TrEMBL record:
This is NADPH:quinone oxidoreductase family protein. CDD domains: QOR1. GO terms for molecular function: oxidoreductase activity. InterPro entries: ADH-like_C, ADH-like_N, ER, GroES-like_sf, NAD(P)-bd_dom_sf, Zn-ADH-like_protein. Residues 15-320 form the Enoyl reductase (ER) domain.
Length: 322
């Protein structure tokens, strides 16, 4: 089969190449899936340089989540050949075939095509753990979502609206924010940085929850426009700078800084992790959340897809279709 293989850790994806490799061998308890769509996530890019928490042994095939069709499974798995499924893979998704633990596989919702189904799991799990499990967002609360035009940010916008929150979306691009305002009915959009005073004015003093996958200057400014008792969620550092905060600021302003590792949350609390996934896919099946696929690329054009994500040229998700 063809797969995108990372053989060395290097900048500018220099250690990545499309290659012919042996088909994966399915073991008992696994499902062999023919990949029809694999969602690209920012950690996939970080792993090509060894900059993510997960550091797999070389060589490896990246790709954290897929949608496709069952090729082979155990007779008692509940999955038969040809059934359309979605699966969280952690690794291996950017290939024509992948083996997945049967516990990480579920039927694809009929209302989503393969590309949109592949775009739900990781992004919405991060949003759900952040907003529901850690921040306990309530209807009517003000939620600021930074990096709102990326996959993880847009999932938070979408989920926050589904939870009944009032949402302020921020991004560097006013043009991209206009797309989000039109398609997701945000309560306000602001360019970032430079949002501090507008957030305070819109919310009447400060946001109840701030969801920050950007870090750097955006995090710094967020500490100045969060409400007393607010929750500032540290989701990532796409800006490239890991921010710091003097502890007198959260003390005086009475807010919490909460670190988010959604995948690790599910691994440490497996029962809650399964509940999270059940809740997300129930919302997806009911049409209450709406993943947005901005672009689809064939596996042979993986570099264009990676560069588009690196340069933030998308609104929502980028999908690779082997």
């Amino acid at each position: 089969m063809k797969a995108l293989v990372v053989s060395s850790l290097a900048p500018d994806f220099a250690g990545c190449a499309l290659a012919d490799v042996s088909d994966p061998m399915r073991r008992p308890g696994q499902v062999l899936v023919r990949v029809r769509a694999a969602s690209l996530n920012f950690p996939d890019l970080l792993m090509t340089e060894g900059k993510y928490q997960l550091k797999p042994d070389l060589p490896f095939v990246p790709g954290m989540e897929v949608a496709g069709e069952v090729v082979e499974a155990d007779a008692d798995s509940g999955f038969s050949e040809g059934v359309a499924v979605v699966a969280g893979t952690r690794l291996g998704g950017f290939a024509e075939l992948v083996t997945v633990d049967a516990r990480s596989v579920r039927a694809k919702p009929a209302n989503l095509d393969f590309a949109h189904a592949a775009s739900v799991g990781a992004a919405y799990n991060t949003a759900y753990v952040s907003l529901v499990r850690l921040a306990d967002v309530q209807p009517g609360e003000w939620v600021v979502v930074h990096g709102a035009t990326g996959g993880v940010g847009l999932a938070a916008v979408d989920l926050a609206k589904a939870l009944g929150a009032r949402v302020i979306a921020t991004s560097r691009s006013a043009e991209k924010l206009a797309v989000i305002a039109d398609e997701y009915a945000t309560d306000a959009t602001l360019t970032a940085p430079g949002f501090r005073e507008a957030v305070k004015e819109l919310t009447g003093g400060g946001a109840d929850v701030i969801y920050d996958p950007v870090g750097g200057d955006v995090f710094d400014e967020s500490t100045r426009c969060i409400a007393f008792g607010g929750r500032l969620l540290v989701v990532g550092f796409t800006s490239g700078r890991i921010a710091t905060v003097a502890t007198n600021i959260p003390l005086i302003k009475g807010f919490s800084v909460i670190g988010v590792r959604a995948g690790e949350y599910g691994r440490r609390f497996p029962d809650k992790g399964r509940e999270n996934q059940d809740a997300i896919w129930t919302l997806a099946s009911a049409g209450k959340i709406h993943p947005r696929v901005d672009a689809r690329y064939p596996l042979a054009d993986w570099r264009t897809a990676f560069e588009a994500m690196r340069d933030s040229r998308m609104v929502g998700k980028i999908v690779i279709e082997p």
